[in-house]
Amino acid sequence: GRAATDKRLLFVMQRGAADGMALLAPVGDPHFMELRRLFAPDYAEAQRLGSFFALHPRLEQIGKLASSGDARFLHAAATINRERSHFDAQILLEGGGTRAYQRRDGWLNRLVGLLPDGEVRALALSPQVPLAMQGPERVTSYAPTAIPEADADLLDRVSDLYADDPQLLALWDEALKTREMAGETGLKNLRNAEQAGRLAASLMAGPEGARVMMVESNGWDSHANQRGQLGRTIGNLDAMIGAFHAGTGDQWRNTLVIVATEFGRTARANGTAGTDHGTASMAMFLGGNLPRAGMDADWPGLAPSQLHDGRDLKPTASLEQKIASAVADHFALDMRRTMAALFPGR
């Protein structure tokens, strides 16, 4: 049946603790250079948001959305979590409980329960339904094939391995194809970020399309050689968002995209040209009908005394509250009721 709402939400979960200070660098902070000298050259020519913040140069499409008033950047935000375990922190962000393993359902599933009566399709672009979407409301997970998740490098290596054997190569190529997208998008290409963005947009299109969707973005755990590795991951995220934006067409005005991670990273670069597990990070709210665009930051500062535990960006905003507020605005729900349902006990 027809969806009860034209409003759509895409939640992009950055798994692995994305470095908010790399995505959106506080170049105006007097301590930035000392902490991040290694990464600073990336921001010399970068797009500025005001005089204080600079977007990572690989965020080209998201930069365009910023210029057109279709982006809001929440900095120095964290969940209720203060541990630095990926697993527990992801469970907290997805489940929305006040401690890990407290809940077996997720905030996106509970959101579906708040939406007006009618068929609201919820979909995870993932081999299994992630915790954020588990619960009593019906959610479908969609992955183009049953091949277990493998990274693009591995798939390329296997393809190279089979290249000299036409029969094996044909079988392998077949395994990488998906029936659903008329053969256009194989798993190898879905891992290509633009394809994922296009696919997400097409699955949300039309009266029958999904209204709540989750996509997982991996590769954010940048302990070493951050400039190269993280640059690629940021470029992939940007390409996915750009393709999704293009694919939504005139429904962009009805669309909200939330991009968030489980926690941030250390303020100071480590000895292996990366960063370690931290606390506060940056989240993005993108869409064609945002109540407010631009920066949303109560900047805590990067002086040693201003850092959380003397090492991390200090959280000055509740990620859960900001997510609930954005979602309540978008779907015209009562904020109090939304917060209580999505992130109870805060």
What does this protein look like?
The structure is a single chain. With 346 residues, this protein is an alpha/beta fold. Helix content is 34%, strand content 16%. The strands form two sheets. Strands 1, 5, 6, 7, 8, 9, 10, 11 and 12 form a nine-stranded mixed β-sheet that branches. The protein is globular and about 50 Å long. The chain starts with 7 loop residues before the first strand and ends with a helix. Residues 177-190 have low confidence and may be disordered.
List keywords for this structure.
single chain, 346 residues, alpha/beta, nine-stranded mixed β-sheet, three-stranded antiparallel β-sheet, 16% strand
Amount of beta strand: 15-25%
Structural class computed from helices and strand pairing: alpha/beta
Which stretches are poorly predicted, pLDDT < 50 over at least 5 residues? 177-190
Q: Tell me the overall shape.
A: globular
Helix content: 25-40%
Cα separation of the termini:
36 Å
Biggest sheet descriptor: 9 strands, mixed
**What is the helix/strand order?**
EHEHEEHEHHEEHHHHEHEEEEHH
Write the CATH fold name: Alkaline Phosphatase, subunit A
How many beta-strand elements?
A: 12
Mean residue pLDDT = 88
Number of domains: 1
Oligomerization category of the chains in this entry: single chain
CATH class (first level) name: Alpha Beta
Report the radius of gyration as a whole number of Å: 20 Å
Number of helix segments?
A: 12
In a few lines, what is going on in this structure?
This protein is of the alpha/beta class and 346 residues long. Helices cover 34% and strands 16% of the residues.
